[in-house]
Amino acid sequence: MSTHQHFLLHKPFGYLSQFVCELRKKKLLGELYDFPAGTMAIGRLDEHSEGLLLLTTDGRMSEYVRGRKVEKEYYAQVDGLITDEAVAQLQQGVEIGIRDVRYQTLPCAVRRLETAPNFPPRTRKIRDDRHGPTSWVSITVTEGKFRQIRKMTAAAGFPTLRLVRVRVGDIWLGDLAAGEAREVVSFALSCQEAELNNG
């Protein structure tokens, strides 16, 4: 029987996805919940991104979830009213920079959100309407390069103003409040159990 522990967390804006940082005055995950020793974040959301973060004490589980067999879905609020052409461009893949190297993102699922998600206001205001309209788009990827979603929307001409991860595999952010953590028995991810048990 596994003794590992698993958690869902709604990472708020302004927190790093880590427990230790040499930089002073940074907000860390350990401030949000009394996680057990050995807990690790599975993948990361950058300091200014929000949403679903999975944590575990199981290194094998972490490796699996970070792999390309598990989808990650993000809702991005972008600057301007995103066009059909930009959506198609994102779907096909765009060229972004990763540590001074040009990289072509893989084809992915992208759709415009006709209604803005019902997220509570961010702790730091995005901007006001005087700066022009904004729109929301859903982007689902199976890769996770550094600041990839932000770089993708910028490459398509619509910089990201707010970014929220809403789904990892079959797990949704749902009604988890910003800063709230919830322990779960296991992660219900597609094909996960068969893979791990046969590994």
Question: What would you note in describing this structure?
Answer:
The strands form two sheets. Strands 1, 2, 3, 4, 7, 8, 9, 10 and 11 form a nine-stranded mixed sheet that branches. The chain contains four helices and eleven strands. Mean pLDDT is 89; it is low at 190-199. The longest helix has 9 residues, at 84-92. It is an alpha+beta fold and 199 residues long. Strand 5 and strand 6 (101-104) form a beta hairpin. It has helices spanning 59-65, 84-92, 148-155, 192-198, and strands at residues 6-11, 40-41, 50-56, 72-79, 95-98, 101-104, 109-113, 134-141, 160-168, 171-172, 181-184.
Task: Summarize the topology.
Blueprint: E1 6-11, E2 40-41, E3 50-56, H1 59-65, E4 72-79, H2 84-92, E5 95-98, E6 101-104, E7 109-113, E8 134-141, H3 148-155, E9 160-168, E10 171-172, E11 181-184, H4 192-198
Parallel strand pairs: 3-9
Antiparallel strand pairs: 1-3, 1-11, 2-3, 4-8, 4-9, 5-6, 7-8, 9-10
